[in-house]
Amino acid sequence: MKITAAMGADVPLRDVAAHAQRVEALGYDTLSVPEATHEGTLAAFAALAATTELRVNTGVLVAFARSPMILAQAAWDLQAYSDGRFELGLGTQVKGNIIGRFGMPWSAPAARMRDYVGAVRACFDTFQNGTPLDFRSESYTLNRLQPFFNPGPLECGAPGILMGAVGPLMTRTVGEVADAMQTHPTNSEPRYLRDVTRPKLAEGLERGGRDVHIELVGSPLIATGATPEAVAAAVRGARESLVFTLSTPAYWPTLEYHGWREVGEKLRQYTREGRWQEMDGLVSEEIVSALVPSATYDEIADVLLEQFAGVIDRILLPVPADPADDDAIRRVIEKLRAG
User: Fold this and answer.
1) pTM tops 0.70
2) Domain count, the chain
3) What digits encode the pLDDT tens for the residues 142-187?
4) First to last CA, the chain
């Protein structure tokens, strides 16, 4: 199993380099940089510039806020600069943000993302092989790239494309067009991944006529720490995150799979009524236990291997807030990799 560190959105851009160096020294395979308070490709560049072996992916860039060509050029530059250590992570965001935050049009997200990735791959093909650019779809048409603007081929080849997905339609789209899928904490439960996510990826592969392995990146809300008290505090934090996130219908697929849809409906109702203080009691210990793997550093690798071995290819493992725990997390990483 490969191990990814997810960088928090609160890391200032000036501190990304030091954070990436720490992650590399801890033995992580990949650093996933978010796009929240910082533009994602800038943070990815800072991380790649500060490291020599660490892979870096964007987790995830807002695709619909960008031209496919502009993003393809940025990804190409990052791949070239790092000698092949970059992975382009893409996501759709939600309708309200695309329209209200980015000022861009919205359309059916799964179909549009299929077109978007196709357009980016067409750009990559033109860069790498000199193929005339001629991509036409319902969402995007790209048919002009003069030689002056073509960055040319890379020895390391084009970057891989990772997609964030939650629901079945977008998961199937990943199988059609992407190389890897990153789950959301609300759809990272191992039974859901095995029984729903993997079959939907297989459907997408068949629909796209592809014979490849889609790497599945699990993003569970892992609650761990040096002591039982630290673990309990992490579980409380994870519960707070679930209470907020599960009030949004887009994050209900795992609830529906387990027969817990009414919990999401009540959470949504309570947010509309402003009953914020009462929401915590709606998320049962059963739900928290299913969605939040928890144990001390000494035990968490065994817990994760028991739940996720053979189900996912990579896992997002939190970087300790306290550097005093760095040796402990190194041991966790070594055990997960060996397992």
Assistant:
1) yes
2) 1
3) 999 999 999 999 999 999 999 999 999 999 999 999 999 999 999 9
4) 7
